[in-house]
Amino acid sequence: MIVTLLLAGLLAAAPSPPDSARAARGARATAAAAHADSARAHAPAPAGRAAPADSARAAGAIPPFWQTRAERSGYRLTSDYDETMRYCRTLAAGTEWIKLQSYGSSGQGRDLPLLVVSKERAFTPEAARATGKPIILIQNGIHSGEIEGKDASLALLRDIAVLHTRESLLDHAILLVLPIFSVDAHERRGPYNRINQNGPEEMGWRTTPVGLNLNRDYLKVEAPEMRALISRVFTRWWPHLLVDDHTTDGADYRHDVTYGFNHGPGTPTAVDRWLSVAFESRVVPRLAAMGHLPAPYLEFRTGSDPLSGVDFGNSRPRYSTGYAPLQCRPAILVETHMLKPYETRVRATYDLLVALLEEINAHPRDLTDAVAAAEAEVIARGRERDPARREVVLASKTSDKSLPFAYKGVVAKLETSDIAGGPVPRYSTTPWDTIIPIYRDIVPTLTVRQPVGYVVPQEWTVCRDRLDMHGVRYRRFARGWADTVEVERVLEWSWDARPDQGHRPVTITRVATERRWRSYRPGDLWVPLDQRSAMIAVHLLEAQAPDGLAYWNAFDSALELKEYAEDYVMEPIARTMLAADSTLAREFRARLAADTAFAHSPARRLDFFYRRSRWADPEQNLIPVARALRAPPETVLAP
Ligand SMILES: [Zn+2]
């Protein structure tokens, strides 16, 4: 009690924003108070100073001790990693409802912080699940130069759990908050990291120190930060919703906050419905009523031209919003507008989180039921006996059907620039309201019929690693097993001309499915698809999946030629083959007639025969993962 009073005195007397040293002292004092009298330590706001009705709008009314660096600096600055960690520790010490955890280490060895927020102190995945409440994962700073989510989240957690001005938001939810995800990039601070962005004065960098963009890494899980997030947060807590806070680039307009999510074919029905009904029909209008101008993510069909219409399509599973639905969960991309001042952007993010948590607080079961229904849908597909009912969408685009959208732009004109040698938009501050088309009707561009399950030879360790990371359930063979299975033969493929994420991705444009008799060994993997993560397995293992293992070069060695024939060895064999096989001879002549380059290449002409000879590699161009035609019997599987 005495400690609490002393602390209150310290807070009331604090004349100016605390420097780091004072914040650290405060953390210790608060921790001591929490230890001495945890109930009283909840609200160290000075007596006689009523908590503001809307904390984020009245930073001046927040006790100086509890102000974030952004609030204390009038939103000129944001805290660095060390100060953020101190603030997190202070939060955790100032309330019983918050626990600071580490879920791993970054490439440079920094702790990856996770704040778990729960009124019932359900600080483990098991305890959280036992409450039956929705678990919401709020992720900030995956692009750490786009950091308003951190300042909004820290203020919101303080308002919920310390100042108690918004504590009801926690009545029906458990929050997992990543204050900064890309922590190393967050410390590559500078004023010149984002040329389009209006503050804070210094900000972090887009990629990790080894140049990986974490928001391209969800399905391929190569960066240590993403591997920690997926294996130690996502697939342990199984959050019901992922919120991914960013700052956009792109055109100028008046909308201060835009959002994205995957929808339509490829997204589980119940997840699609929750995003449309709960988020877009209730949260977005609520956000507008709070004074914002929300809009779907404003990616125009043509450059920065709004009149070309908004393309509200889907993201591939390398992105947060593409990944979570494959795990039967909705994900919401939040993009504040980079040209708005930092304060405006922090408040937009804060208010969006408030509106979202109000919705979840009012209808918590809508979210948990949607996730349960999505899981049931995916599991049922895995048990479907009719192959025609096992279709999975791997890629999609928007059709040319459009809806009207009330766009809040600014008047702009195109001026011809002698420097650029072409037109450059010049934006004014004059409002321009117009109706533009929004394209949000999704049509599949690539679907596959998922098999009963996949069989993965154990030596392809990269497959097992990814399945483990994503929580995909599989079983090992305890005994040998042989069966006819489907394998995919790659007929046409190319390496992308430009590197991407340190890869030269492989685009496979044509495959043939072949039936082969295959023998499997004890230790090989059986991946059944009657499980919640089935779509992850399909997107990893299908040859043409847009972000699959084949795309990210995991199977390149299967596409390389290993043995070959010298011309003086092959030519006599080719002559014998031609004499013995009239069908082959016809095929050869047809090829010579149809393909001039082939006809003029002695190497390719002889290779034609080598690949059809007994010496050809039977595994050449075959994806090593097989599509099972039936499940292996229980007797050959390890328990
Ligand atoms: Zn971003």
Morphology call: globular
Q: Give the overall pLDDT as a whole number.
A: 91
Q: How much strand content do the residues show?
A: 15-25%
Text of the CATH class of the largest domain: Alpha Beta
- Spatially, the strands of the biggest sheet line up as 1-2-4-3-5-10-6-7
Alpha-carbon distance between the two ends? 56 Å
Rg over CA atoms: 28 Å
Q: Which class of secondary structure composition applies to the elements?
A: alpha+beta
Tell me roughly what share of residues is in helical segments: 25-40%
Residue runs with pLDDT of under 50 for 5 or more positions: 1-53
Number of strands: 20
The appropriate CATH architecture of the largest domain is 3-Layer(aba) Sandwich
Major beta-sheet overview: 8 strands, mixed
**Domain unit count:** 3
Note the total helix count. Answer: 19
Give the structure's gist in a few sentences.
This protein has 639 residues and is α+β, with helices and mostly antiparallel strands.
Characterization of the model:
- With 639 residues, this protein is α+β, with helices and mostly antiparallel strands.
- It folds into three domains: 42-384, Zn peptidases (Aminopeptidase), CATH 3.40.630.10; 449-561 and 620-636, no CATH class; 567-610, no CATH class.
- 33% of the residues lie in helices and 23% in strands.
- The chain has 19 helices and 20 strands.
- It has helices spanning 2-13, 20-36, 69-72, 81-94, 125-131, 148-161, 183-186, 224-237, 269-289, 320-323, 342-362, 364-383, 461-469, 534-541, 556-559, 567-580, 582-594, 596-599, 602-610, and strands at residues 98-105, 111-117, 135-140, 174-178, 241-247, 257-260, 294-296, 300-302, 305-311, 331-336, 391-398, 403-417, 422-439, 442-449, 453-456, 475-476, 481-495, 506-520, 525-528, 626-628.
- The strands form four sheets. Strands 1-2-4-3-5-10-6-7 form an eight-stranded mixed beta sheet. A six-stranded antiparallel beta sheet has the order 16-19-15-20-17-18, with helices on one face.
- Helix 6 (148-161) crosses helix 11 and helix 9 (269-289) runs antiparallel to helix 12.
- The model is unreliable at 1-53 (pLDDT under 50).
